[in-house]
Amino acid sequence: MDISIIIPVYNSASTLRQCLLALNNSSFSDFEVLVVDDKSEDDSVSIARKFPCKVILLDENMGPAGARNEGVRQASGEILLFVDSDMVVHEDAVERIVNTFEKKPDVSCVSGIYSKKPLLSVGLTGWYRCLQTHYWKKSTVGYTTRFTISLGAIKRDVFEAVGGFDEEYKKADVEDYEIGHRLVEKGFKLFQDPLIQADHRDISSFPHLLSTVFRRGRMWMSLFFKRRRLDKGYVTPGRSFGLILSLVSLMALLGSVVFPSLIYTACFSIILFLISDGGFLWFLLREQGTLSFIPLVVIHYFTSLARAFGAVAGTFDYITSK
Hints:
The protein is an alpha/beta fold. It has two domains: 3-203, Spore Coat Polysaccharide Biosynthesis Protein SpsA, Chain A (Alpha-Beta Complex); 237-320, no CATH class. Helix content is 53%, strand content 18%. The chain contains eleven helices and nine strands. Strands 1, 2, 3, 4, 5, 6, 7, 8 and 9 form a nine-stranded mixed sheet that branches. The protein is globular, with a radius of gyration of 20 Å.
């Protein structure tokens, strides 16, 4: 089975060395590595050239979707494995991907998940994001509608059949959902295995986290209105209800300044919000202990609010575009 590992890179000097070292130490080694540099302004290219890989230099900044497409054009493998430059794959990850394709010939895409361990030293926000993405991705295991392209492989003929990544996405936002939807609509099967893992550097700044989830929530709504369905295992009805509850609680809390009785609505909504994603909060408590739990819940609440406001903005975008 010929495998091409494609790594889109933009100013990734802080993690690229670890990313490439991990691939070199993989238990499965029969693959080629293509590093697609998206006009980096740091030492990413010089770092990549110290490893046995093909370095592709783009003439302009295209964003990760465009960089991945260019990597595919220059790749030779029948299996295309996309790995982000801030990912350190576990030693058996590539081998497990290969084995899954061999054991499940009907599967067109195989994805992994983030581990519980952040790649770099991070603060409380970084730990929240690391554990949140691990838990949410782990809840999407099995057949899914989302192609996790930070650690995901696809058969070349399938990738070409759906036309590759949509290059309108200039940042790492919802292009994984978008291509996943096109794949499912054409009848291809996507499989996510929780044993395929990588350590990931995620967002450690609280303002950056809020702006990111707001933007992605806003962009995801256009995909939702197109399909009229939630994503299996990831954007669940319970989590969607939790976003609504976070908004209700905030509105009631603000309204209680004028109508004090609304404080009861705010409290009740917050309790329901906590219950709506209780499994994840229990996971946070087990992993981080009681001292960090309350601050992590606060981060979760405001992150949910940012995502909810993004969904509202996306809905407004959809309505006004008609």
